[in-house]
Amino acid sequence: MRFIFKTDYDQDIRLVKHGGQKFWYGMLFLALLAAPWMLEEYFLSQLSFILIYGIVGVGLMLLSGYTGLISLGHAAFLAVGAYTEAVLAAKGWPFPFSLVVSAVFAAIVGIIVGLPALRVKGIYLAIATMAFGFIVEEVLARWESVTGGNTGLIIGQLSMFGWKADSERDFYYVALVVAVLVTLGVLNLLRSPTGRAFVAIRDSEVSARSMGINLARYKTTSFALSAAITGIAGALYAHKLRILTPDQFTILQSIEYLMMVVVGGIGSIHGAFFGAAFLIALPQAIALVKDYLPPAIGQATGLQPTIFGLVLVAIILFEPYGIYGRWLKIRTFFQLFPLYRKGLFKRQKAFMKSERLR
Amino acid sequence: MQVLQVVISGISQGLIYGLIALGFVLIYKATETINFAQGELMMLGAFLGLTVVTFGLPYWVSLPVAFAGMWLVGILLERAVLRPILGQPAFTVVMVTIGLGFIARGLVTMIPGWGTDTHTLNAPFKGEVVRAGGLVIGMEHIVVIIATIVLSTALFAFFRFTRVGVAMQASSQNQLAAYYMGIPVRRLNSLIWGISAGVAALAGVLLAPITFVHVNMGFIGLKAFPAAVIGGFGSLPGALVGGMIIGVVESLAGVYLPEGFKDIAAYILVLIVLVVKPTGIFGETATKKV
User: Fold this and answer.
1) How far apart are the C-alpha atoms of A278 and B7, rounded to whole Å?
2) Which of A281, A337, B269, B281 has the most CB atoms around it within 10 Å of its CB?
3) ipTM greater than cut 0.90
4) In this predicted model, what pLDDT tens digit does every residue of B209-229 receive, in sequence order?
5) Three-state SS for B135?
6) Is the CB of A280 inside 8 Å of chain B's CB atoms?
7) Which of B82, B98, B185, B229 to mutate to test the interface with A (most CBs of A within 10 A)?
8) Size of interface A-B (CB pairs under 8 A)
């Protein structure tokens, strides 16, 4: 068991809490750096996808996990980022600039959509973002002069200042750098007053307001940042896929991203990446075991959604903090051995109050 | 005359959305949570009705059978999945019901005889047409209109005048206080899930002659959301009015606006409503100062 002897208030907000963390995160970073030499091209490509989905996850986590708002339209923000990047890249903009523009553009769109819904409590943001998602999907399919419609839009390789990311490895490194920067940025944000305000709003809007937090302003900030981060992921996603079609950005994708956040572990940055790995790995795991199942089940087209749904329901019922929550429990078990008790992580009983009568 | 015809068919289409939105509103009114699997419950109900009809029983028998069957399914779902997360934030319930929707849509493809095919459910009144002064309206639409109005009146009266209905509203406003007053919150939740699933089943069986029966028919539920929002979530007449508005706007957009607007008219409308009057037409606006 590790006891941290605190001698300084700064220790409470330090990103790295103790030497053990320094060591293990260092090892993780080295492993990620060395990955291109250790993995085959196919797995490296999957790892890039995990990083991109992880960025989406971090963005959505900021909104859902830390501010407590639901968005059913994040695929639309991904689309905004991806198509902006595609258009700018075709004009020869270097990647860093087009990346920033994609993020800013996604954020602006996010504010326009979110502002009305953020004034009211409850489920309205989910419905507004869902509506927005459908509209974006339709616009992508119809605005053929810019988006190429249903035939798709082809985008070149990622390039900046004369350098081209023309191998899987180059792209992986770009994705890694962006993912690390975004994650560090969000971690930093979360220990700042803004981040604390987000968490306060999630835990109780009434008490947050009593503490002088401007609800509308912070909710909008959170939503805009979330959209911007998703836009960044979209820019990478565009270069990874190389061809963009509207059916990659439907409500089903938005739901998958929410699922990723919940399965990974709501309310933790780790969870975003665990969830991304889960989302990439599960279809492949299903493909592996499919042939051993009875044909009526194994060959059914609904096998994958069924398993996704079962996992989602099971996680919410039995492990509300997802994969990261389970990992925390296992770690605590060994740290406290043999003193771990079952009730250590028990959820407090909650009662619901109306949101109509604030 | 053409405008009138378009409006009439819009209203009849809109009442379909209203009928599905009734299910959302019921659950919202009683538990203040949103059931994203409502469309899938409707789909299951339609398949149940289809099975009854394929056994050779008449169409009218399939209605009560589907209603009772889905009532049971609703109660089972509440018991197994929703009761353990009673009192958790809305987010949790949304995710669970989304998960349930995925499971329902997946399982249906594995059941022999249901599968991924599109089935037709033949109602005795299918294909009949009523003409009144140059206007044409299909008999199956008239049945939906009548059913929607009857159901929503009955449910409105239920919430307004019965003890159980009032108790449901109380428990949605404050669960803890409702417990203190001796209201059996869990049993009421169970009941409302049963009713809501039953209503979904009726919607499914009534819609089947119009839209066919297939796995993805539940996606029409996504159009019922805007209907519920425009009417003001939590208001039963609101769901009908919201549905009608959406239906009319949609069919007008289909005729007078460029292609593509028809599919998204409902969503544009809901965004506008959120800007102008976020609580909807019949929404309650009571607020309490902190």
Assistant:
1) 48
2) B269
3) no
4) 888 888 888 888 888 888 888
5) strand
6) no
7) B98
8) 174
